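Subject: Sigma-70 family RNA polymerase sigma factor structure
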Amino acid sequence: MSDADLKGLFLKHASTLRSYLSRRVRDPQLAADLVQESFLRLAEQTRKERIDNSPGYLYRTARNLLVDHVRQEHRRKTDSVPHEALADIEDELAGLEAQAMAEQQRAALREALAELPERTREIFRLNRIEGMTHAEVARHLQISDSSVQKHLSKALAYVMQRLQTPPARPADE
């Protein structure tokens, strides 16, 4: 089939074929794409062998392409979920991730505190966890206020340094 013959077929049948497909898919862009693909397949096929009924071939090809498209869309189709539901899931996952990270940080803090000398650990616990003032801790443990400050300073420096650098793993892990 020559280019002139193909052009003549296109001018004669493209509009009707597009209308035929548009009625079935209700999407003019998809219909136009299917028409174009039908003509491309006709052009490829006529190079291989002679086609006796070119309009019939075009309509059959367009119909088959439409069926294939519908089948593919059906396979791809998923149930629609409102955006709000997806946001809730995302927020829940972010919350779970934040909880897991917080738990890891608490475990690292407990581990770092366990490595402190007993007196320093006790002073840290009373001040930072129990909420006692320096003076109250000093009275409770019967030590000076400056001693409380020195122990807290050591504890805070050690804990901060320890939380910023993870512990070294044993060689056999």
